Amino acid sequence: MTAACGGSPNFQQDGDAATDDDGGASNDGGTSSNDGASNMDTSTGTDAAHPNDSGAVDAGIDTGSVDNSDGFGTSRAACIAEINKLRATESHAAYALWDTVAVDTCVDDQATYDQKANSAHDAWINMVYPTCNGNAQDECLGYGTSPSEVVACLDAMWAERLQSNCSNCAACNGPKLTQTIINCISTSTCDFYGNYGGECGHYVNMSADYFSEAACGFSTDTTTGAWATQNFQ
Questions:
Q1: Which domains does the chain have, with CATH numbers?
Q2: How far apart, in Å, are the Cα atoms of 194 and each of 119, 135, 159, 197?
């Protein structure tokens, strides 16, 4: 995968969690199964979003504080709940859900665009729907968009930490992104891009203490295995 690095605070990484090949994703550097993306800009001025109330309850997931205007309220609730459940296992503070109708439409559009193009992070990298880009993106290719399918993808991405070339990633963290952290996640023992094995980027994005919220988006294209995105800021 390629990177454009201008130093902190504008550090771009491209890396997707997939059950299939990337299908020609341009920034892939030989890792066929995984991609995570990150444009880590700690100077972002985006305010925390205020969630909309759908009032829906499904499969034990209370989505009363989650926007459901796109029909993905239960999946979105499951997405943020699982991310925070995994973060809690390492004592990281919970991410807030970055959730408005506009943001949800945007991340849905990104997932749909990428799936139709069969190219991970295409919309994110090329600023096709830029308003919800945030500072990082993970993407699930072909897992589906139901709550259980999204959880399965997130669990697979979190499991990246168990790879030997990701063994030091837990130490590459902090409340603010610094050049030291950037250097740390570019080594053989915290290998964001997967230059020394499977990539670590999804786990890095999901566990980062320098992000505070996440948006969960879902492809509306059901012609093939549905894709899902998680954007962080």
A1: 55-232 (3.40.33.10)
A2: 18, 20, 14, 5
